[in-house]
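Quality-control log, excerpt.
Job 1 of 2 completed; input and output follow.
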Amino acid sequence: MRGGAGARGEAMNGSGPAAGARLRTGEFIPLVALLFSLVALAIDAMLPALPEIGRDLGVARPNDVQYVVVSLFLGLGLGQVLFGPLSDRIGRKPAIYAGLGVFMAGCIVSVVAPTFEVMIAGRILQGIGVAGPRIVTVALVRDQYEGRTMARMMSFAMAVFILVPAVAPALGLFVLRAAGWRAIFVAFFLIAAAALVWLLVRQPETLPPARRRSLSPRAVGRAVREILGIRAAVGYTVATGFAFSPFVAYLSSAPQMFEDGYAAGDLFVAWFALLALAIGLASIVNGRLVMRYGMRRISTAAAAAIAFTSIAAWLGLFPYDGLFPFWLFMAYFVFVFVCVGLLFGNLNALAMEPLGHLAGVGAAVVASLATLISVPLGGIVGQSFDGALYAQVGSFAVFGLGMLAAIRWAERGRHSRRDG
């Protein structure tokens, strides 16, 4: 069922498709997935290149190359604060255009980077820019859908989006072998340009001028205070941050885990793709399950499964001196990532559910707070990698318990009503 906001959100701002037009679901989901996927592409396609970047730019400590990943998340957290309120003022599409432009500028900086510090500056700029499509696209969806239907749309979009982490390392490896690591940033630039053209030509604006809000600090501050006073929004945002924390740690240390722990070599891209597909499959299944069981029940069950399975797995590491046999390593992470796939779309939709009247600022607050929780915590776990898996597995246990506590806190003050 379409949300009431969708009926009001089809007016155009004078560019692109005609006023009153609406993109078909079969095209809207791939477009949303592409805009989401720029974040995953900018992270995952770099993973095979991290050792070479470290060698070429003189990185002293092997763990320091993780900053190529973590710095993008840092920029993402900063950019999300900007683009949500901006989209409430100037419209969804112009805000996404601006973000894509900043992202493309950051790609250019990284292409020409003579030092690791300049590389990191370019990555922060890419993170700030990619926050535009990442955060405003959530508002774009929320303008048109709500409740379980929004969760279903987000799950299907994320299922398409998850194909990018599955293929991005292979794409990065191909470009790396063919033209060197700097050419990977050229590929990012071209893909962002293609997304910009698709959005410009095909997607109607979903926020008509009559519904736009002031960008004054007072108005934005008032909206943020209102959001932070909504217990469900804050609780599910914190739960989202805890869900992403061990995932950030995994992404930043994955090349080292596979290479140092299991000497995977170029097969890293295949094993990484398999784990990414586990999340994608779970997202597809969630799109169907959520209509029957509801977001809250699925989220609680998935968080509990992650926490208690990871506690058992952490204890099970000791007989293996901190490093599972490879088959057990893959079995554990496949199970955990299936649960992660059940969480991402639902937790985001639950956090956004009470924020339909503040979709732009709401999406910014939800995403930026979740990122500012997950990046420092995940970065600390990633930097602690020493060849054993105690920290990585333990982080899923600890943050899984944190998710359960945050979900329970969010629900404690919720008015009794039918599950969204």
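Job 2 of 2 completed; input and output follow.
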Amino acid sequence: MGIYRELGRNPGVLRILASQLTARFPFGMLSIILLLHIQRAYGDYTSAGIVLATQSIGQAISGPMSSRLMGRWGMRRVLSLTSVLCAGLLVAIALVRLPLPIVAGLALLIGLSTPPVTPAVRTLYPRLVPNRQLSALFSLDASAQEIIWVLGPVVAVFVSSQFGTAAGLCVAAAFMLGGGAWFIMSRTVGEVKLPPSKRGLGAVLRYPTVIISTVIGFFFVASFAAIEAGIVAAFSGSAGHGGGGQGSIESGIVLAIFAGGSLVGGLLIGHREMRPWSLLLRIGIVLAGTSACLVSLNIWWLSAVLFIGGLGTAPVFAAISNLVSSTVKFSETAEAYGWIGTGQLVGVATGSALGGVAIDAAGASGAILVSTGLLIVAALCAAVSLRWIPDLKGRTVEPPPETGTLSLPLP
């Protein structure tokens, strides 16, 4: 654990870590809140799926493009514009009753204006700490981001059940603005200049590691969205009040324990040197815990097996960050993380939509089965990618050097 104490001694690291997590927190809330908000407004999950799908399309387009714009316009300008616009659109959906096609159009704009916080911060990390500490920083970031992907839905369900889904959307917008301002005003964000990429949009996808990370991240995060919907559905009937009260508390407890397992796993495993088979092994841990949920929906059983599955969650995210940082040039890392972030954000929306359809068809177990299937696909992708995953044992995690033409004076 001494490596994490060393991280804290680097100026600005803890502030950047805390502020970017606050700015990214709405990303873990939005899919569940939109799912509930649209379902309650229009009476079916199909409408909610349409809205989530249009949001996903917008995110798929915006991720790489907004990341590249940071190299031209600067991080602060791009992050400020997108944060204000995205938060305003969320409030509009929350407070104004509109026809479904218009809501779908607003959801598309929400996706297009999603603030590129993740690519920004992961591009900053190599400039914040020495190379030997970078793997530990990625691990700490992956552990802490469980607040986003697991506790975010807990907060979303609690606020929505107690105060309504409109309040939930407004809370997400408040986090986006407040956390975004905190992160944007950090001194490091203003000091680090991201060089513009020298190649065209999408050229970074020529790196096999970027393709691998994007595809695996999509299926991996989609599985979380599906199981979170399944856990909420599993306990919504126990309260007898349409998902509020005791049911919300029980689902929140289970998801919090899942997050706790991820936090423990990230701190104990995530910083370890990555071997080619590490990613597959870590996904396998999550798959074992998730598939065991199909045995019983008892709260004690779910808490136990999801804690075990959670031990592999943060280490998977840490492995993906290490994979990109060690193989992609610094000038292209923002776009690389943009593609990966797009894959994960689209995965959240896709997993929520598939989970909602599965709940309508087969109850909570259907969503858990969907989650298990998505993890199996992620594991298969990791297995067939072993030849392209570098062996980082004994190596520092740092971007490869930039190459270019050096002009020398003639004799």
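Post-run check on job 2. The chain has 18 helices and no strands.
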